[in-house]
Fold:
Amino acid sequence: MSLERVGEGMHALISRLYPICRSITGPGVRETLAIVREEIPLAIHEVPSGTRAFDWTVPQEWRIRDAYIEDAAGSRVVDFRRCNLHVVNYSRPTRARLTWSQLDQRLHSLPDRPDLIPYRTSYYAESWGFCLAHHQRQALAARGDGAEYEVVIDAELSDGFLTYGELLLAGESSDEVLFSCHVCHPSLANDNLSGVAVATQLARRLADRPRRYSYRFLFLPATIGALVWLSQHPASLPRIKHGLVLTLLGDGGPLTYKRSRRGDAEIDRIAAHVLTRSNMSQRLLDFEPFGYDERQYCSPGFNLPIGCLMRSLPGEYPEYHSSADNLELVRPEHLADSWQTCAAIVDVLERNRTYVSLNPQGEPQLGRRGLYGTLGGKAGRAELEAALLWVLNQADGRHSLLDIAERSGLSFDLIAKGADMLVEKDLIREQPQAS
Structure:
């Protein structure tokens, strides 16, 4: 499948998921995961309200049917059915008649972006509210405090479940690579659904090929979902050797990698190698204790080797957490580029090996084996010959191919190609991994 078609397929998936009103619990998450399960064989797990996850507790499940603000003439001036961002996510059930000054205290808008509806939540503090464009808020204010409004939030908070999806693709090794994305935001295409789409497409790619590592994909509500999974899978944590949180991957910002808390984990080095050798603009950032679920995976009690791959940073682009984070913001070409970067990182993970020379006393004669000086004027001959010599020199059982690529300044692909050629000629062999 062409890269263009891959991008279009991911955008089509986002388009299906975009209208759904999601939250950290409730039917929106289930509907989202059911659609993803049409693409990959997700296992769906439900964790009851009240379940402890370290210092947190799974909240009551939130279900919303309708919400609106109605003026005295019976017109809905704010309507959840037109845009699910209009309601503060997790608003408690409400029915009241309020003056403008009373209502205004419950409204949220963006004065610096007056045409956009903001996204706001109240997951862990009982409250309610509405979000609207600032120019609309000003128009209502102009009616004066004598105007009254009917406010209805037809919702319920009751004991239920937190729902998440999981897929484990077993490989030759039980060592795992973890990919995590969040599924809790409502109609936000970049902050939420781009990560879901890239993770889904990456899982489809990996399912169709041999795998050295095992790969675990988690589709979770942000923060509480990761904490629940971590608290309930202590036996799995030692097997996690590498990982990425995937988010904000559909806009036109530069590819950005945020390192794990360790800072020098293999995944950090691989991501840096892939990004810096790409033709795209890119950024490498050190770990910070805020952002997405890398905060949970990298908390000191776990310190897992998990970084975050994104494009624009949270809050960096003007559409962030607003109604402008829509299907026009995310583009198939940016999704495809993000997916291709993930696939390249996986390819390095899969191919990174350590080798031992079978002829370590001096340099073996490559010419009589057809590996040196017989390539004529072929493009890249000098670099390939350099790769062969670098691999032979560093094949002492202590240096991985990534180590050699970093030290030599050559691409990982070229170093790996050289290693394959040397294995074929019985000049090196793979060093078994320590158990």
Remarks:
- The radius of gyration is 26 Å.
- The mean pLDDT is 95.
